Amino acid sequence: MLEFVQQLAEGNSLQRLRGVLNGTCNFVLDKLAAGASFSEAVTKAQACGFAEADPTLDLDGTDTAQKLVLLAHHAFDANTDFAEIEREGILEVNAAYIRELASSGRALRLVAELTDSPSGLSASVRPQVVDANHPFAQIHAEQNCLICETVDGRQFVLRGRGAGRWPTTASVTADLLELVRELNGKEEEKSLVASGSVA
After folding, report:
1. Which of 48, 169, 193, 199 has its CA 20 to 30 A from that of 187?
2. Does the structure show a pLDDT above 60 at 174?
3. The dihedral of CA 174, 4, 165, 56: what is its sign?
4. Helices 23-33 and 95-103 meet at what angle, rounded to 10?
5. Nearest Cα to 126, choosing from 112, 143, 140?
């Protein structure tokens, strides 16, 4: 998501990002919709490797807000203050209400939003109800989804697994490869300067 957003920001004017950015929360919400209790859903997420031994930072929206800070930097070159992000997690959600939504084809998702406007950048994380045809309702279990909107009205949607051993491994590997590319680029630049090839 970070790489795509950065590429998009370089060639287009991004106006808004909306995303389901925490696979743990999405997994728990789907289990609640299927009839599990909150504790059962969390225990199952832990058993599947989608939740930490202490999942509080996922469930209270902290992890999602931290990801929003990173997205703000890559999308808008902004240093968003984590403390200023309006944040509400899923610790207080009503399981019966979630099942009721599911019976009508809708879903509850923990949605992160980042909007650029003349008055500045606004950021929030909170549970939202989405209709059955919405991209956020069409992702399940540990999947994540990001919707990028540009000022000219175009919309880009990314989907993928957001929790578990292999998605985490892939993300860490990608970060390490990017770091190696950056370091190699700096070494090459130093070499060119030393040889007098760069003014």
Report:
1. 169
2. no
3. positive
4. 70
5. 112
Surface-to-core class of residue 72, CB atoms within 10 Å of its CB (0-12 exposed, 13-18 middle, 19+ buried): buried
**Separation between Cα atoms, residue 58 and residue 48, nearest integer Å:** 15
Cβ neighbours of residue 198 closer than 8 Å, sequence gap 6 or more: 189, 192
Sheet with 155-161, side-by-side order of all strands: 86-87, 120-130, 107-117, 14-20, 143-150, 155-161
Q: Specify which residues 129 forms β-bridges with.
A: 108
Q: How many angstroms separate the CA atoms of 41 and 24, rounded?
A: 10
Under a CB-based contact definition with an 8 Å cutoff, are residues 26 and 128 in contact?
no
Average pLDDT over residues 37-44: 98
Q: Could you give the CA distance from residue 199 to residue 193 in angstroms, rounded to a whole number? A: 7
Q: What is the pLDDT of residues 105-118, one digit of tens each?
A: 999 999 999 999 99
Positions of E strands within the chain: 14-20, 86-87, 107-117, 120-130, 143-150, 155-161
**Token digits for 182?**
């950056």
Rounded Cα distance between 176 and 153, Å, is 34
CB count within 10 Å of CB 57 equals 16
In contact, 33 and 99? CB cutoff 8 Å: yes
